[in-house]
Each structure stands twice: as structure tokens, then as C-alpha cells.
Batch of 3 targets.
Target 1
Amino acid sequence: MTRPQDTLATPNLIRRHGLALAATALFLGAAVGMSFPPSFAEGARVIPAPQEDAASGDAAALEVAVLAGGCFWGVQGVFQHVKGVANAVSGYAGGEQKTAKYNIVTSGKTGHAESVRVTFDPRQISYGRILQIYFSVAHDPTQLNRQGPDAGPQYRSAIFPMNAEQARIAKAYIAQLNQARVYPAAIVTKIEANQQFYPAEDYHQDFMTRNPAHPYIVRHDAPKIEDLKRVFADVYRGDPVLVAGRSSR
């Protein structure tokens, strides 16, 4: 995906520019009835709720979930439209702080995954419900080290649990979904404990809201919001909760 300040100065950015052009071609091709390889197929899948979930909280304390599912623009955008979510910040998890920078993470060699830190009110939405939306709408958990047109370990499907209970719930849910065979292939989502989250650069925050006409957003991310509204109407909210107005670091 091409970022706002990307240019054609390096081979890596040329590759990124090419992905954005590919996304545009896919969008235009779809409009005239062209078909594309299965690796580009995206869309929500109706899945059962988790059989194991966290108990509803009574205190006013907020909780955090850190999730990776490809480009963080779309994952952030989805959870910004979910009731009970107080904040959703794009960032990096799985690597060291010194390499948690976009121009380094794109090498695919830092261990990081583009991730989103979702802060939520457990009195309004549970951790299991967050995971249900993540697996159903936010991304395709059967794609290994890629998501749509974006390839590399930085686009892997991963859950970064905050505690043992989150890890237990996530592991049980993955097993439940695999056993039910709700996907045509096995879920490849990794559970990566004891990892820090580092917020991404300010220009990545609220990207979907600020750039609705961006070709990548139009092709890959805007449909996720429609899927959220259709599949999870009970928790959908029209006005997203945004990072704008405060520093992301």
C-alpha cells in the first residue's frame, strides 16, 4: 500500500506504488465484471461467537486488545466503528522499539506486524466479541504472511494477548473455528505473547477516515465497514472514534 509521503525514490517504494496501482486496477476491473485470483478475494464471513469468553467487567477500567491483520489502515477503521471501543491506534508489535518505524518495518525483517491497539469497555463489548469481529470482518485469518495484495511477515495475522486469559480465549476460539470448518482453510493466526506495542507515525492514524477516496481504501478497506454494518449491526456505530486531536506517541 502506498503511504501519503511515499515517492518513487527507492525500489521498496516503487513496489509499494505498484501495489496501489494494482489496487486501482482491481477496483476498476471489478466494475466491468473482470475476475481476479482467489488471493485477492476479501469479504466478511459469518462465524459463531466464541464458546469461551471473558466475564463482563463491573469496574470502569478499560481493557486493551492488540491485533494484527494486514494493513493497519483497515483494521483500525473497522474497530473505530465498533460500539464500546474507546480508542483504536495503528502501530507495530512483535519487534523492538528501535525498529518500530514504518520505513524499517516494510523490510519485513524487524519481526513487527502492522497492528492495532484496541482499547475497549468490557461492560459494553467483550474480548471474545472483539475477536469475533477481527476474524469475521477485519481480515482473512487463513492467509499466511499476507493480506489481499500485501505480502510479507509484517502483514501476518497475529494476536498479541495482554494476559494469560486473553491468550486462553484466543487459542480456544481458533480451535473452535477450525473444528467447525467455517473457513475453507485452516486459520494461521499466531498468538504472540509478551510483546510490546508501539504506535505508528501520526500520518497513519485515522487514515481511512481522512482518505476515503484513496484507491487502496476504496478497494480493500471501505467494504469492511459495510460488512461490519451488515454482519454486526448491533455493535456498529456510524461515527468513528478517532485518534485525531491527540498525539499518537
Note: The CA atoms of residues 56 and 123 lie 6 Å apart.
Target 2
Amino acid sequence: MALDMGATGVIVPQVHNAGQAQAVVQAAKFPPLGDRSFGGRRAVDRHGRGYAATANDDTTLIVQVESPEGMAAVDQIAAVGGVDCVHLGPDDLMLRRGHPMDQPHPQDVVTGDLQAIVDACRRHGKLSAAMGVGRDMCEVCVSLGVNLIASALDVGFIASGSADASRQARQIARDSKHSQ
């Protein structure tokens, strides 16, 4: 488990109801909140035998709501003790609603889903999270008060860095040919 390897938080996808959220808490949090085993040695070796006393507060458990069922139960999911944050998964949610993935998501629908998550999180004292990739979506997230916003994706960073490195290498090769 990622937490036993020393991660300070996890995102658990495809949480569709409060029962599943509770099962996630059982696996990720130590007693009395959950039933996580103290057997993972890396975190204990790094933080000492007192790790379990503070780990429930020091680690972040994010559940991702990505289905119509999950959206219908978002208030109950956010109410589960031990869930620290609820994250909207718009792609899977739209896919499960029958929306084609090769077309833009209807902005009003995504905004409505995001508002429902933000409202549920506020009611239950939890953080809300969403993908705010691109200026328009980032502005929506900020305007709704989303707490954690992923404003870019690792694939984009890798592609951009790769393209920059390739451009630089080609330029160096061209400059080298001209100087010979």
C-alpha cells in the first residue's frame, strides 16, 4: 500500500457510495478511525513507533467520485469520517453518462457536478478537488472555491519538456554543422 511505503496521501478512484468510502477509510486509516495494519515498516522506520498516533491527521485520503451513482451519493460520501477530500473525476463520469470522449464535456454539466462536490465538502468540513486544466476550467474551479486544483497534467509536462529538449538538440546540431 502506498501509505505503508511512506506516501503522505492517496487518491482512491471509483468511489460510488458511502459504503465504499468507509471501506477505503478502513484500509487507509489506523484505529480507532480505520483498521489499517501497523505492519508496513517503511513509514514506521521513517517516523518511529509513534507514527500511528499522528498518521490519521498527517495523511490525506482523497476519494474520487466518477459515476452518476457517486454524484447521487456525494453528500453521504463526504460525510464519511476519515475521508479528507472528495475529487471530481469528470472524464469517467461523462463516459458513464454516455458522453463521447472525443468531444468537449458540456461545461454547464461539469460545473454543476463540481458545485455539488464543493457544497457537500463544505457541509462536512472536507476539502474539494478537481482538474482545472486550461484557463477556463481553472477559473471555474477558483470561482466555485475548489480547495485543491490540478492545473496541469504530468503528460503535458513530459511532452512539453521533451519537445523543448528535442528543439534544443536540433538547434545545437544545426549550429554545429554551420561552424564546421
Note: DSSP finds nine helices and five strands in the chain.
Target 3
Amino acid sequence: MTKAIVTGAAGRMGSRIMSLISVTEGIEVTGAVEMKGHSVLGKDIGETLGLDKTGVVIEDDIKKCINKGDVVIDFTHHDVVVDHLRIAAENDKAMVIGTTGLTMNEIESIKNLAKNTRCVLAPNMSVGVNVMFKVLEYAAEVLGDNFDVEIVEAHHNLKKDAPSGTAAKMARIIAESLGRDLDKVGVYERKGMVGVRTKDEIGIQTVRAGDIIGEHTVIFGGVGERLEFIHRAHSRDNFASGAIRAAIWIINRENGLYDMQDVLGLRD
């Protein structure tokens, strides 16, 4: 039985993860964490989910429950996730990170800390999105420089980071397949007389509206034809299910940094 500690327990993702774990075989929630001052602190997770009491109380510090679990599932905020991983590594606990908006320095810290534990880091835990990652890699290799690439992502109006981690991952996969440096060719806004579109640029545009859970469209535009690859999330449960799958998978792996391509067996 995999024992999971869920951080951000009262958040949109944390609560869905705990709810799905309650009906999933082979895994259980044995620890839960929320930020200091939150109204759910000290409550049984069953109370917050509308279920029977479980005996698992929500703590304000991951250190208070880190030894109760095998793996930490983290969908919190980029400025705390590195500390959570450091504590997990110090206690030989695995970790699944779905938190987005990470800076390059934070990603480097995660890579270094993962040398001392097992960690899955993915901007999107959806099985469908990760299959799409693989398809985009193949499509870009085949289509090459003859097709313009544009990515449009849409999310709810409460999302704080832009573009989404998923869109950024898609852009980087495509850029690498085309032999381009995304930091040089990524175009995140167009306004006014921007001139003719350059051959190498990869457009990444952002929409924030209403309660859109997540939608990503990748356009390969050629002369006389175009291909569009679209993924629409209708529920956060697909992200939660992927995170749970990753948590069960990572337990017995060797130390290192993995992603959902490894979890799903899509790695070449």
C-alpha cells in the first residue's frame, strides 16, 4: 500500500487528489498539509472532503507528517515546492510535483535534489496531454521548417502564471525537435506593426477567461494546409488521476528526476 502525503490539501487539485485516492486501490492518504493560518488546519481530511473521518489531520508544516508517508504529492506554489522536496529528500521520501510557474533556478534546484531521492516533475499529469507531447515531437520532426508553429492555451481567470507550464513544455519539445532555441524564437505577444512573421519563431499565446480548466491548441501551418492538435480538459480529475498513477509508480524507482513520459512508458 502506497502511503501519500498531499500538500495544498484544501486547494482545487489537492482536494481532488485526496478524493480520488479514497476510491483508488493500492494507495491511501496518510498526511496532509496546508499553509499556515488556513481555516482547515487541524481538521480531519474526511471532514473537508465530505467523507467519514479518516484520522488524518491537516498540518501546517510538512515536517510534522513527512515520516507518515512514502511519497509527497505537491500541487502548491513554486516558492515552496523546493523546500518540500528538500525535506522529502532528507527523509528519503519520493515526490510527485505538478506545481507550475517554476523559475529556471527552482528547476535546477529540483534537479540537484532529485539526485538524493525519486521525483516525478511534470507541468501536466494528464495521460492525454503526455501522449500529445509525444505526437508533437514526431510531428515537428516530420514537418520540419516548412510549417509555422503557433500554440494557444486557455485557462480559468484565477490562474496566475502565463503561459501555462503545459504550453511552455509543448513549445520546448517542438523547438528541440526543430533544432531551435526557444529562448530566442519564442514569441509571447504580438501588437502593432510587428512585421512579417519570421520563419523560425514559435508563437505561444495566452487566454484567461471564466472557469476554463485547460485547453491547448498547437497549429502547424503550411502552404495550402494546416494541422491542429487540440487537448481539452473537462475535469481536473484527469490531472489528479495522473498524479496518483505517478505516485504509485515512483516509489520503487532509483533516485533521479522523472516525468510523465517515464511513468507512461513513452520514453524512447
Note: The two ends are 30 Å apart (CA to CA).
